[in-house]
Amino acid sequence: MTESRSAIALPMDIERIMALLPHRYPFLLVDRVVEFEHAKRLVALKNVTINEPFFQGHFPGHPVMPGVLIIEAMAQASGLLVFLSTPKHEAQPMYYLVKVDNAKFTQMVVPGDQLTLHVELKRMLRGMGLFACRALVAGKQVAEAELLCAGRSGA
Predict the structure, then answer these.
(1) How big, in percent rounded to 5, are the helix, strand and coil portions of the chain?
(2) Of the listed 23, 58, 62, 118, which one is catalytic?
């Protein structure tokens, strides 16, 4: 049996997230992991604050989190699911978002909201993962999408 990262301590804080994801401020969009089921699903949080740099231009006087950044937050949570489900001894490729299907945005996300990101691995095949993703605020779904991410070794 291979050793995996499945025995993680929850909640997972930002330092551990930064050890797994290559993203950094202002593009790291996951603040905490609160649920994890090995190779199946993950739930993460993104605290949305007025200090986010994108609010300066999207939109002045009416700040709204861009939908593409909600998609990116879901993709980062998907990456965490893959990284945490991979045996520790295996080399970890860089994962890239390659396809977004059926994206829907049903409510605006504004400063003060906390995004709850639900990602579920539908299948993994030849280094590509297909994920069903949802973003919620206060228990209400605000966005959903199906994401395809591909692992690529090297730069």
Answers:
(1) 20, 40, 40
(2) 58
DSSP state of 65: -
Peptide bond connecting 63 to the previous residue in cis, omega within 30 degrees of 0:
no
Q: What is the pTM of this model?
A: 0.93
Note the CATH number of domain 14-152.
3.10.129.10
- Adjacency order of strands within the sheet including 140-152: 32-37, 41-47, 114-125, 128-137, 140-152, 94-105
By DSSP bridging, strand 128-137 and strand 32-37 are: unpaired
Domain ranges (residues) in the chain: 14-152
The values of phi and psi at residue 20, to 5°, are -100, -40
Q: According to the model, what pLDDT value does residue 2 have?
A: 39
The answer to whether the Cα torsion of 36, 124, 106, 74 is positive or negative is positive
Distance CA 3, CA 51 (A): 40
User: Annotated catalytic, 62?
Assistant: no
Q: Which residue has the tokens 């790291």?
A: 28
**Average pLDDT per block of 10 residues along the chain, 155 residues long:** 60 96 96 97 98 94 97 97 87 90 98 98 95 98 98 73
